[in-house]
Design a protein that fits this description.
120 residues, alpha+beta, six-stranded mixed β-sheet, 6 strands, 57% strand
Length: 120
């Protein structure tokens, strides 16, 4: 499978709410450097799975709308908006934030991520 296809599959609807699905995409030595509107976070495999658990507690739906995809060898860049539906109001879709990420794919898994986000 091409790196671009692996990254696009990772961002399909609701994958980010499913711990088992997320774990299948991650390289055991995965790290992501994330610059958020509130500061810098560096996450590893366990941190990413913990974030998935937290998202699953708060949201019943997760949808990614991708506007740009660029692949160069084993690097894939995405620009996307992340929309969610909360447990309290499952009928209303709300924008969680806008993101830009570069993923390095190694051995068919997400290996190194560099992400910037701005939350709504």
């Amino acid at each position: 499978m091409k790196p671009k296809d692996i990254v696009l599959d990772f961002y399909k609807s609701d994958v980010l709410l499913d711990r088992k699905a997320v774990s299948e995409f991650l390289h055991p030595e995965v790290t992501i450097d994330w610059n958020t509107s509130k500061g810098f976070i560096q996450m590893n495999y366990d941190d990413i799975l913990s974030l998935t658990d937290e998202l699953a507690k708060a949201y019943v739906r997760s949808k990614i709308r991708i506007s740009h995809v660029i692949q160069e060898k084993n690097l894939v860049s995405l620009r996307f908006s992340h929309f969610v539906k909360t447990i309290e109001n499952p009928r209303e879709e709300m924008l969680m934030g806008n993101f830009f990420v570069i993923w390095e794919v190694k051995e068919g898994k997400l290996f190194r991520g560099y992400q910037m986000s701005h939350f709504s």
